Structure formats: C-alpha cells, structure tokens
Amino acid sequence: MDPIGGTQHEDQSLRQFLIYSIIMHASLAVVVVVSAYIQYHGKAWGGIGGNLGGTKVNLVSAAGIPMPKESVVTESKAVDPTKGLHKEEPPKPPEPKTDAKKIPKFEKEKPLPPSRPSRTLENKTPPPDNAVPYGKGGNPDLPTGYSQTPGGGSSGVNVQGQGGADFASRYARYIEGVKSRIYRNWNVLSLDNTARASRTMHCAVTFTINRDGSTKDEHISESSGNPSYDYAALHAVKSAGAERLEQLPSDYSGSYVVATIDFNPPSIR
Amino acid sequence: MHAKQRWLRSLWAFIFLAFVGKAADGQDWFRTAIGIDTNKPRLAIADFAARSDAAKPHAFLFTQVVRDDLQFSGILELASPSFYPPQAPSVPAELKPAVWIDPPTNANFLGFGNLSESTAEVAIEAWLYDVRSPSSQAVVGKVYRGAPTDAQVRKFAHQFADEIIGKLSGGLPGVASTQIAFVSSRSGSKEIWVMDYDGTNQHQLTTLKSISLTPRWSPDASRIAFTCFAPYGGLTSAQICMYSLDTGKLVSFPRFRGTNITPAWSPDGTQIIFSSSMQGNPELYVSDINGGRPKRLTNANGASMSPSWNPKTGQTVAFVSDRGGTPQLYLMNSDGTSDTKLDLPDKGYVIDPAWAPNGQLLAFSWRRPNDNYDLYIMDAATRQIVELTRDQGRNERPSWAPDGRHLVFESTRGGTRQIWTMLADGSQPHQLTTGGHNESPNWSPR
C-alpha cells in the first residue's frame, strides 16, 4: 500500500539477489581454483569420461582402442648402452620434473666400458617390479636414441585422456600382466560340472588396484548365475591381489585404478 | 525465506556436484577379459640386424631362439615373420611403429635389435617396444656381451625372451632359461642327463654305468637327488645319490639297508623325503639333505613311494601307496600325520604325483581299466580332475615347469619312450628327445 515501502521492498529484493550472485560467483571461483589445484597435482587423471559405464575396451586389437594423439618422435644424441644395465646403477633419487634438456645428462655419462663377460650384465637378484624402464619417469635407461614428447610431460608422459580407454592404450603392457596374474590364479578345476560343460558362461569381477599392487573392493559385477563360476572368478582376483599385482606404472599419477575382468569359459575343462 | 533456502540449497548442490563430478572424472579404469575367445598380446620379433657378415649366423640364431621361446610360452601370439614389413629397425631411432601396427602384422609389441661380433666377443642390443603406446619407452632393453659361441648366443636369447615374458605376465618368470633333468640309456646304461628346456644342449651328468632313476632338482637348482644302484652290505641295492651341479661330482649321501628310492626335496631345500625299506616295509622317511637322522613318516601295509612335497605350503606331501591293493594317491601332513586317500571316479593304477608351483594342483599318471597310462590334473581342494592326454601311447611322470603353465613328461606316442612338454591344458605337445630311450624328466625350479 505504501509506495515508498513498496520501493523499499523492491530494493531489498534486488540487494538480496545481488548477494546471492556474489556468493555464487565466489563459489565458482573457489571451485575453479580447487579444481585447478587437483588437476595440477594429478589427482584427477583423465579428463572427460572415466565413469564406470559399460564401454568394453579391447586391449590387444587395433579396433576399439581410441589412440591418443600421435606422439612427436625426435632423434636424440643420447646413446649410452651401459644405461641399459639399470640393475647395476647405484640407486638414484627420484627424477626431478624435467624436460628435453635433461637428455644431455646421458651424453655426459661415461663412455662405453671395455668388453666384459656377460655375467656383469646379469643380476643375481630378482629385479624390483618397476626396475625396467617401461613407464618409468625421466630418461629411459637404455641407449634409445629415441625420445618422445607427448605433450612435453616432465616425466615422459603428461597424462591426459579419456578415462579407461586411455589407460588401456597407454598401459597395455601393465594390463597384460594383470590378466596373466589373475589367469594363473583362476582354478578352473574348482568349477562344477555345469560350469565346466558350458561354452557360454560368463561373469565379471570389478575391483580396485592400489598403487602398491594390492587390491580391494573385489565384487561380482556381472553374475554368471552359477555359484562355482562366480566363486572361482572372485577367488582368482582376490588370490592375485593377495600375492600383489605389479605396482601401478610409476609414471601414472593416480593412486588407484578400477578394473573389470570378464571371465569367459576356460580352455581347460 | 523460501527463496533464500532454495538458493542456498542450489548453491550447495552445485558445489557438491562439481566436486563429485571431478572425482568421477579422475577415476581411471579398464576392462579386459580372460578365457577362450580372448586375444593374447601379439608380438613381432624383427630379424636382428647383423653389423657385419661375420655376425649374420648368430643374428639369425638369436632371432630364431627368441621367437621359439616366445611361441612356447603360451601367453602371447607371435606374428608370422612373413607378415613383417621389409624394413626392420636395428635401433630405436629407426622404429616406425605404424608399419608394425598396420595389417597384416597387427603387432602390439615389437622386439628388435642388432648384433655385432668380433673374434673375442659378441654384443647384442635388444629392445621390446609397445608400438601402440604413445609413451613408447622401452618395455625391455638389454645389452648382452659374451663369448661368440652358439651356446652363449642361445643363452642370451633365452634371457631376452624371459625378460619379455616376465613383462607380459605381471612379473612371473619365463622358463626359457630353465633346464630339464632326465634319464637316458643312449650311452648304454641309464644315466642322469640334463638339457635346456627346449631340448637343446643335452649332456650326460652321471657315468655310474648301472641304473640311475628319478632325478629331482633341489629348490636352488644346485643339486640333483636321484635313485642309484650301489653296493651295501655286500649286495647292490637301490640307494639315494646326490649330484652337485656346482662341482660336477657326486656328493656323499649315506646308504641304508634295503631299497631306497624316489627322493624328493622339501620346499626350503633342507630336507629329503624318500622311500626306504630300511626297517622292513617300504615306507616314507625324511632326513636332512646329508641323509642324517632319517625319520619314518608312514606306517602301513604295502609300499609307500614317489613322494612330492607341496612347494607352496610345505605342509602336505602327496605320495603313492598300494596299501589298499593297487597303487593309489594319498596325501599326508609333512610330519606323517593325517594321511588320506585321494579317491578317483574310476579304478586303476594311480602313480607319479607332482605338485604344481601354486600348491593347488596335482598332476599324476592314471591307468584306468583296459587303458594306458594318461596324465591328469587334480584340484586338491575340490578333487575335481581333468584329463590331459588320451589315446597317444603311455604318458607318465609329469613334472611342472616353474611357471605353472607347462608340464614335461615321458610318452611313447612316437613309438619309443621320449621326453615331451605341453601346456598344462594338454595343448602344444612338443617332443624334446629322439635318441635312445629317455624317461623320468624333472623340470628345474629356475
């Protein structure tokens, strides 16, 4: 009724929305800053995608693997075959964040030693799981004469990608190792007669691989409907985890990976 | 007031979803499959480049042995060399991944390298690359140097193949550098021989000129225990003998009264279990590796023999006893308690138990009524069995490879008794010996 009061009411309403707007923008700014921080620290490996949806990744055939952007391959002058003998090198501190300028460090190293018996190249003790240069940060410990610059990542790899598909293409060798370890622990002789006779039975086990190769959260994500088949699959994953899978690749920045293994009928029956 | 609450609720929901969405984005995953109809990693091994004409034979040999080893492994698919592109890299700088990824090679991984040779030394640079990975650092990279002999080049090839197999199997070892002990009569008497896992480098260890049987590697592969015939108390009888691979000579082991046969090692290599009739009835005894303080483990009617000590747990011993009338498999604790018979779904003779490295599976020979001896595997927990051989002569005395993927055994399928290997699902049989009669193989632990 009071026109002034009415005006005052409208002013208050606008001010209220202005405050909301400021809070909203401030929140947005916080989210952006925190997200950038997480991204920078590699906690959020992978960009879009990465949910546990159902795209099946075929690891070993060309089809189905969305290949990442092609790497730029450049020749390097670094040639030192002794670097291949990584087991004999003294332990080094972790490679600092580096770029192509680090490569000359190779050139400064000692020239080839004189010929010597082969056993000097052999290690009497088992190598640590991550001793071979594959996926290792920093310079490869081989006379590669070959360097890759996939985005100029300091550790050799600047991990960007499309969730699981990128992990599968980038770390195919690691995944082959996981498959092999689980297959080795898959006791198909524990299947009942129905399961052993089937040519189509299938189940899937989903689990988490921690950085140290241990596993957790193993569960049947797709049941076969046959208890012995599901049990053998779940037991295979748990047993492989109890023995420890390989550590996650050292150049992979995440702390864990979620894996789903499809158990198709075994070849032995 | 309502409008304010809605705003605040929207604001918190927005922030929450922003963080949750971010976390979901960061969760990496993969999905893969095992079992039939799943692909194995496909490898190509390019011809290793000879740096001189003199190096050509060994470059060819190295390439061929690596290919054979990988083919044997059973964990990968080797692309046929006829599919390879004409230009093979000899160093990583020459690698063009695309031509190896494309059909018909379709490789996931490529092995390549070069070999140079002088009169004093052969030097081999060898790499394996994941040609589909954008990071493309070497999966394996090695330099081998040694005497320019066939044997040395072959050894280096085995080592390189084992490196590859280890990398593609999650760190589990390959068997390309392992050996197989066996009994051969080709020299005129049954002696202990050793060969590389692929049948090459066969050579005689013992020259006892009598009868030597059932060789068993020690867990550290430094010794072989076996059954020999030696004088005791004025008579020649079966005794336990011990051969040192380090010294190339027999190691002293005490002789006992009666018949002493079928030694087996404890997993820690500190004890020997064997069958002996030193107290009358053939029973199983355990002693230290010098034969000291033998202690009887079994006490039953009939003979007990052919023990196999569970290599994983060390708690269980499988053995053969005819206490029930015919030879059958039994399990007991390693202290001799709680022996139980492993019942099979049919009658017949059951012999030659051999534990798999995982300590879960037991391979054995079974002669079913009106049939030949064939090889089977049993899951010790569920007693489920699977048949590995059928209608191919006699197949006996299985021994596991340390990778748990292969078995070596003796078979008459070729007309004479010879040593064969196969994958543990019965596929890829491969004959290792041809000359004379060869039997009783035992795969070295490493």
Describe the secondary structure blueprint for this structure.
The complex is a heterodimer of chains A (269) and B (446).
Chain A: H1 3-40, E1 73-75, H2 104-108, E2 146-148, H3 164-170, H4 172-184, H5 193-197, E3 203-210, E4 215-222, H6 227-242, E5 256-263
Antiparallel strand pairs in A: 1-2, 3-4, 3-5
Helix pairs in contact in A: 4-6
Chain B: H1 2-25, E1 29-34, E2 42-45, E3 49-50, H2 56-73, E4 77-78, H3 97-101, E5 109-117, E6 122-130, E7 138-146, H4 150-168, E8 179-184, E9 191-196, E10 203-204, E11 213-217, E12 223-232, E13 235-244, E14 249-251, E15 260-265, E16 271-276, E17 283-288, E18 295-296, E19 304-309, E20 316-321, E21 328-333, E22 340-341, E23 349-355, E24 361-367, E25 373-379, E26 385-387, E27 395-400, E28 406-411, E29 418-423, E30 430-431, E31 438-443
Question: Quick recap of the structure?
Answer:
The complex is a heterodimer of chains A (269) and B (446). Helix content of chain A is 31%, strand content 11%.
The beta-strand count of chain A equals 5
Q: Count up the domains of chain B.
A: 2
Task: Specify the helix fraction band of chain A.
Answer: 25-40%
**Unreliably modeled segments of chain B:** 16-25
Summed up, the helix count of chain A is 6
Strand content of chain B: 35-45%
The biggest chain-chain interface is: A-B, 110 and 87 residues
How many strand segments of chain B? 31
Q: What fraction, in percent, of the residue positions of chain B are helical?
A: 10-25%
Strand arrangement within the widest β-sheet of chain A reads: 4-3-5
CATH class of the largest domain in chain B: Mainly Beta
Rg result of chain B: 27 Å
Largest sheet of chain A: 3 strands, antiparallel
